[in-house]
Amino acid sequence: MATRIRKYWADIGLPFPGVGTPWSAVFVSTFVKWAGATAAEFQFAASHSQFVFAAIQNAQNGVGVFRGRRLNAYGPKIGDIIQNNRSGNTFDYSYAAAHKNYESHSAIVVEEGADGSGRYVRTIGGNESDTVGDKIVRLTAGGLIKQPSTDPHRYICVIEDLK
């Protein structure tokens, strides 16, 4: 996948540091760009925390087409981005609103549905077990993200896509 990953970096104007460098934020940034977002609308970055910080600032100021929303106030829709913790971190929305650089992950919502376990959204993300992968994120009956009981700090925020 090295050729494909190199293209993701190039398409958002960043130098390719090699496949050993995490590329999940570059994947999200690239697909947001391919979907039509401009650099004025979305902060294309090699770190999830950077575009999340910018989106939260947009939400707080009531501007922009990508707005970082609190998990208890906004339910994800197709085209939105869900940010989550990684490596055992327990960052929350308030932390994300105040910091530009911390380890996290995010993926793009591509499906909404319901099954025998209730409502869910499906996400697609890059560098998930060294490939492009999908995951199911469970929702409450009201459509908000449900933190897993085994990992009650997994999710940090949702970036709403108004574009």
Q: What features would you describe in this structure?
A:
Strand 4 and strand 5 form a beta hairpin. By secondary structure, this protein is α+β, with helices and mostly antiparallel strands. Helix content is 25%, strand content 25%. The longest helix is centred in the middle third of the chain and has 14 residues, at 48-61. The radius of gyration is 15 Å and the shape is globular. It contains four helices and six strands, in the order H-H-H-E-E-H-E-E-E-E. The chain has one domain (2-161).
Determine the strand fraction and express it as a percent band.
15-25%
E-strand count: 6
Order of helices and strands: HHHEEHEEEE
Q: Structural class of the helices, strands and pairings? A: alpha+beta
Radius of gyration: 15 Å
- The rounded distance between the terminal residues' Cα atoms is 30 Å
Sheet with the most strands, sense and barrel status? 6 strands, antiparallel
Q: What order do the strands of the largest sheet run in, or round the barrel if closed?
A: 1-6-2-3-4-5
Overall geometric form: globular
How many domain regions? 1
Unreliable stretches:
none
- Mean of all residue-level pLDDT scores: 97
Helix content: 25-40%
Number of helices: 4
Give the SSE layout.
Blueprint: H1 2-11, H2 24-34, H3 48-61, E1 66-69, E2 81-84, H4 93-98, E3 105-115, E4 118-125, E5 133-138, E6 155-161
